[in-house]
Amino acid sequence: MLLALSLHRINLQMTTAVVDSIYAEENTLMRTGAKLFDLIVDLSAISPQDCPPVSLYRVSLRETVWLRRLAVAVGDEPAVGSHLALFTTAADESIDCELARNVRTTTAGIVAEWKPGLWDARRQ
Questions:
Q1: Is residue 21 helix, strand or coil?
Q2: 2-114 in CATH: which number?
Q3: Bridge partners for 33 per DSSP
Q4: pLDDT digits (tens, 9 = 90+) for 74-115
Q5: Number of H helices, E strands in the chain
Q6: CA geometry: angle at 69 spanning 78 and 32, to 5°?
Q7: Beta-carbon count within 10 A of 43 CB
Q8: With contact defined as beta carbons under 8 Å apart, do 78 and 72 qualify?
Q9: d(C-alpha 108, C-alpha 39), whole Å
Q10: Is 99:87 a contact under the CB 8 Å cutoff?
Q11: Which of 3, 22, 26, 16 is nearest to 82 (CA)?
Q12: Contacts of 116 by beta carbon, 8 Å cutoff, 6+ apart
């Protein structure tokens, strides 16, 4: 079964997110709870204030699947609704078929004043 991960709207005013980290590699089995991406959402352009409204989020899997194709790289800024990755439920399934559904994920957020290195998951 072919599954997709699209950038969902984490915040009502959000239009894009910056891919800060990617934890997965193509053609690998990803177990439930595996971390996929860290995303930065910056709402400064629509909500100017003294402390920038920048939020950090981690996207993790809620099911075991095979990551077959990444559609983004670190530093990319996809729009809401853009495909981030494709998954299958078995290692040998084709990705040249119709999408069955979205992959099940969870998103955890840390809301703070953003500074470079504030939440650098790559150092963990």
A1: strand
A2: 2.40.50.100
A3: none
A4: 999 999 999 999 999 999 999 999 999 999 999 998 755 556
A5: 0, 9
A6: 95
A7: 17
A8: yes
A9: 10
A10: no
A11: 16
A12: none
Distance CA 88, CA 3 (A): 6
CA distance 31 to 34: 6
Q: What's the pTM?
A: 0.81
CA atoms lying within 13 Å on the CB side of residue 24: 31
Whole-number Å distance between alpha carbons of 18 and 52: 15
Q: DSSP letter at 15?
A: -
Domain ranges of the chain: 2-114
Dist. CA 75–CA 89, nearest whole Å:
28
Give me the torsion for CA of 77, 104, 24, 96, rounded to 10°: -80
First to last CA, the chain: 33
Letter for the amino acid at 120?
Answer: D
